[in-house]
Each structure stands twice: as structure tokens, then as C-alpha cells.
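Async update (no meeting this week)

Hi team, since we skipped the sync, here's where things stand on the single-chain job. The sequence we agreed to prioritize is pasted below, unchanged from the tracker. I ran it this morning and attached the output directly underneath so nobody has to dig for it. Comments welcome in thread, and please keep replies under the output.
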Amino acid sequence: MARLGSVKAAARALEVSEPAVSGAVGALRRELGDKLYVRAGGILELTAGGRRLASAASDILELEAEARRAFRETDRERSVVRVAATPPFAEFAAGPLLNAFSHRHEGIEVELQVARREEFASLLADRAADVALGAPATDRADVPAMVSEPFLRYGLIVVAAPGHTLSASKGLAPAALVSTPWLLGPYESERSTDTGAFLARQSIAPRRTRAYPNFAAATAQVASGRGVTLAIAHTVRDELERGALVELDVRGTPISGLWYVSTLRRQLRTPSAEALRAFVTTPEATRAILARGGGVPAERFVHMGTRWS
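Output:
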């Protein structure tokens, strides 16, 4: 309840009935002599005692989960590291990076799931992921301290088909593209992404954008002349060199971005998570990512639970 904000959400997460949750909380209230929470404006607001209890419960759950993970890792011949990655990182960088890591650490199995940046904190706190890659994890008061480290800088450029009406223009103001269709990868219209933030700054309305299930599909539509997109520069290097795409000279671009590796604080990381965190920041990892500038087939990342071993 403290984390999810309602009895109904807590019951759903625990897979029990709402009366069961209410009864358990009622028993705690009687035992501790504290209301634990009050309703304010339709939401649950913890009392001082409720906040202390929630903090203590979170610490207990952390210790239990860490003990279970540590036992599993010592009890099995192969350990597992669970990775969450933003859609662009999953499509363009996760494949070569995790393949290189698996060759270096043959005893560690890697599982990948694609997730939005906003989900990273919960995935790490719940041990559904050990490492998050792409955008930095968003700090949350109810989640144990996380560490986000930048490890690779990239640039975003505006690309279009060679015959685009603005392809020969120099120093374009972003406003010149307001009426142009923008073809985007998954979730890229959200303001928490680099592309979404750029579109919001330029007041480009959602009706001018179209989302595709992966970036490869969006780029293919751009190459066919149906619109423009913001692309990670090194991932469209081949298309630019062979003339399938052109870079538009738009003021304010390239937009500089950073990819991050995020984990829980060091005391809470498993050995396999620490191994991947350390590897991601090495020159070997950078070379692996940049060597595959054309990207990885997007169909590898459509489903949750992609596995490397």
C-alpha cells in the first residue's frame, strides 16, 4: 500500500483479496496503536509511524531478496543477471554489448527485457532487473539508493529521404519542421525521452507524429519519403554513406545524449550485476556497441525475456 498508493493496487500485486489487505493493516493498527495512514484528497497519506514502518519493511524485504539471490548464485553453476533496457538501447546496443559480455563471462547468463525509463526504479527495487541500461533511472523516495553512471555519449540528428524538400537547406530553424510528419520508435513521443523533449520544445503536436513498433521500421519509412526522424547518428551511418538517408542541417542538432548503466547501491548488487556494471564502462564494451553501427535486428527485442548465454 505504501508503494502503490491504494488497497486495490496492493491486493492486485499480492494476488490476494482487498479484504485480506485491509484486515492485515487493521491488525497492525491495533497492535501498534497507530493509524499508519489517513486518506487525503483521495490518496493514502502515511502517518509518521506509517512512514517508519514502511521504511523498516522495505529494508527487511531488501535483505530477504538479497539473501535469496545470493543463495541462488552460489547454489547454481551458472548465475543470471537480469537487464532492463530502454527501446533504443535494446535495439541498437544491447545485442553486441551483451554478446561481448557473455564471451568474457561465460559463467553468467543474461536475460534482457525492454522497459521505459520510468519503470527502471521499480524493476531494480523489486529485483526484477539487476542492471538498467539506456536512460538514467529516476530516483524515487520509496526505492533503495540507486547509482546511475554515464558510459557512452551519442548524438541525435534529423534525417530524411534524399529527395526531401528541405534536404538542401542550411541552418534550418526547428520551426520549419513543425508541419512535417515525424516518424518515431516506441515511446519516443514521451517527454522523458530525448526525442520527446525535443518535440515538446519545438511545440510539435502529437498529431504530427507516428510511432512504430521499432526504430528500424520508422527509419525505413523515413527513407521512403514519408517523414523525418531524430536518429542516433552512429546507428544510421551506413544509410547516410550509401545515400539512403540524408542529414538535415537543423539548428541545435546534433543533440548530445548519454547512455547510463544503473544499479542498486554496491552493497545490494549481486556479483553478476557488478560484473556487468564494470564491463559496460570498459573500452571493449564501447567498441562492441559502435562496431555494430547499423543496429541489431529489431525483432530480437520485441518480446520480454530475451536471453543470451
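Quick observations from my side:
The domain at 153-256 is CATH 3.40.190.10 (D-Maltodextrin-Binding Protein; domain 2).
Residues 293-309 have pLDDT under 50 and may be disordered.
Reply here if anything looks off.
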